[in-house]
Amino acid sequence: MFEYDPVLFSRILTYVTLGFHVIFATLGVGVPLMIAIAEWMGIKRGDPHYTLMARRWARGFVITVAVGVVTGTAIALQLALLWPNFMQAAGHTIGLPMFMETFAFFFEAIFLGIYLYTWDRFKSKMKHFLLVIPIVIGATASAFFITSVNSFMNAPQGFNIVDGVLTDVSPLAAMFNAATPTKISHVIITCYLTAAFILGMIAAYKILRGNKHVYHKKALHMTMVSALVFAVATAAIGDLSGKYLHEYQPEKLAAAEWHFETETEAPLILGGILTEDNEVEYALEIPFALSILAGGTPDTEVIGLNEYPEDELPPLWVHYFFDAMVFIGMYLAAVSALFVLFNWQNRRNPLRKLNPFKSWMLRLIVLGGPLSMFAIQFGWIFAEVGRQPWILHSVMTTAEGATTSDHVDIMLWIFILLYAVLGVTSYLVLRKMFLHNPVEHELERRGIPYHTVEKDVES
Amino acid sequence: MTYELLGITVLWTFLFGYLIVASIDFGAGFYSYYSKATNKAHIIHNIVQRYLSPVWEVTNVFLVFFLIGIIGFFPDTAYYYGTALLIPGSIAIILLAIRGSYYAFSTYGAKDSHFFSFLYGATGLLIPASLTVVLTVSLGGYIVVDNDQIQLLYGELFGSAYSWSVVILAIVSVLFISASFLTYYAARANDNRALELLRKYTITWSFPTIIMGIVVFLLLSKRNITQFENMLDIGWVFAVSFIAFVAAVVLIWKRQRYGTAFTLVVIQYFTAFFGYGVAHLPYLLYPHLTIYDGFTNESMAIALIIAFVAGLFLLIPSLYLLLRLFLFDADYVQGNK
């Protein structure tokens, strides 16, 4: 198909592994928090529906964790196998956060095992709830440490290069680089947002299919309120990310926005296509918006692509991924806000009479599930391709980091096959797990009444 | 002790941890499948599942820990081993991926799937085989380093009696370690039928284990004479290992003190593994890379060691909690919780 080029094949294989891993990793970071909230609500309100929710989510979560763990192991090994030169350099500078990530992972793994097998073991429910906290901390800390590694690749610092040799390494400076705050907060909050939407999607789907059980309504309400909070936070952090790019990686921002000329009062370009001679067509232009995004004021000067030598520019198609990500983020915020407003029974809320469980609303939520996962993919593609041709921004190019081995192409096909099999089996197993054991059966088996303490919100 | 030595000791300890927990896990998977295939599942299934379920995830972490640790402490290993081991490394990843996920699929999802437990059992024996390649390669003679090109000599690797005997040693050791642990676990659970079967497995696998240990030792003299002589210099370590092995088998044979017997098995492997490791020093990859020239810069080394000590403060109590709840809690082991 292509001429054999270990760099190209290494890039594709790394994407395939990470693209697959990030589906499970995102859930791995986000779902524990949702489980913790559900279990907490169950204890606080004395409502066994929420406790069961936590229990059922945890059961499905195990499957996604398993795939997350094995693909995470895969990427850890692959980094050394596919990017030996890069890892040699990285080991000297960012060995610390990588090492700490495995500690966080260790911590989480231990407590996940304990949590899953002690549901009925302690008399006090609070004790069992406390076990989920190290899982939430471990999951989020993993994201924290590993994202700081990625931040380093975008904004390398904390070392000097003298005649090609790394000196004066400061591990903490490398870890807490300029990109770290915005990257980490953006990654963590979008993991939470995506997990909330995926779980909300399941509840909405059940109600849409005619299931009237109050359990699903509670699940939907809880996930959508959480999603709204996370969506607002995502938007705020997204804005800070724009300002970070403007300051430190202007060529990435310019590529995302097809911004060629350095100018003040720069417009934001939505959609559109780029012709061969770099003319933007069919796009919606919002005047001043890019300057405001970059610096907070319309007179901020935004550096354009023309300032850079051509071989240091990222591919311009990242614009589509950037736009898709932003669009989906807006969509998720709007949908969760609408649902929460409709469902908010406050006298002064003019929308309180509207029914949030109407089928169009539920369909929008169901759609939000897969869309949120696509946004994660698009965002990562934008962030990673947007820093090409660098593997370490302004230090090492991707080509310099790659392996020289002869067999990356065969490995690529084998791994694609592996992930296809894993993906399909996890889908089938999860489906079987929940179809064969619907909520109604489990409630009955555990002797939980249909209506518990909370008044049913009738549609 | 220099930072280099401290670093490699920490890593070697974690690799040893992986060797023990992974062996129990890999062997348990194999016995679990084997007992299904021979209609003995009802005898040992519960013992295997009750132990494995809460700890399956932890096993993997030991490996990742070692891997990331060695890149942190000795970044040059990433360059040498990473380039040379693309294929064996990828095969190991695939096996680990199949095993890890199909364990979860078969335990939490499709409980009665024969195929899932076959995949789980079979990969458990292939993974140790694929991972030993790294140990074999580190002895030297299987890799050519020519300017910027590093290549693994597949013909040399597959054609050498030494590398095959290491593979066999790994597999029989997995089955032996695992059976001796599960025997102890079954004894704690007062499950006599499982105990008898597992005891039989332990004794069956003890002989090939010790024979292969001796075979590998003898073949080593042809493979890497420096390593062999270094090992002879500290011969007493291997004598301790052998005595621990004999004592363990005798105890199990006499149906006495299974806990002590398993501890002796751990001592047997601990001494052999560390004796082998010490004899290998200072080389990480003979003769291209030593722990001194491949070591990271000093500030990273200090940071890693601090992180490591801090991490242990977190890990040791957590691991203790895990063991107390699932391993040393008689009620849980016996299936009352």
TrEMBL record, chain A:
Gene Ontology MF terms in the entry: electron transfer activity; heme binding; metal ion binding; oxidoreductase activity, acting on diphenols and related substances as donors, oxygen as acceptor
InterPro entries listed in its UniProt record: Cyt-d_ubiquinol_oxidase_su_1
Location (main, coarse): membrane
GO biological process: aerobic electron transport chain
Organism: Salisediminibacterium halotolerans
Membrane topology value: Multi-pass membrane protein
Keywords on record: Cell membrane, Electron transport, Heme, Iron, Membrane, Metal-binding, Transmembrane, Transmembrane helix, Transport
Transmembrane segments: 12-40, 61-82, 94-117, 129-149, 184-207, 219-238, 317-342, 362-383, 410-430
Protein known as: Cytochrome d ubiquinol oxidase subunit I
Cellular component annotations (GO), alphabetically ordered: cytochrome complex; plasma membrane
TrEMBL record, chain B:
Keywords: Cell membrane, Membrane, Transmembrane, Transmembrane helix
Protein name: Cytochrome d ubiquinol oxidase subunit II
Compartment list: Cell membrane
Superkingdom of the organism of origin: Bacteria
TM region(s), chain numbering: 12-34, 55-74, 80-98, 118-144, 164-186, 198-220, 232-253, 260-279, 299-323
Organism from which the protein derives: Salisediminibacterium halotolerans
GO CC annotations on file: plasma membrane
Bilayer disposition of the protein: Multi-pass membrane protein
Protein family according to the UniProt entry: Belongs to the cytochrome ubiquinol oxidase subunit 2 family.
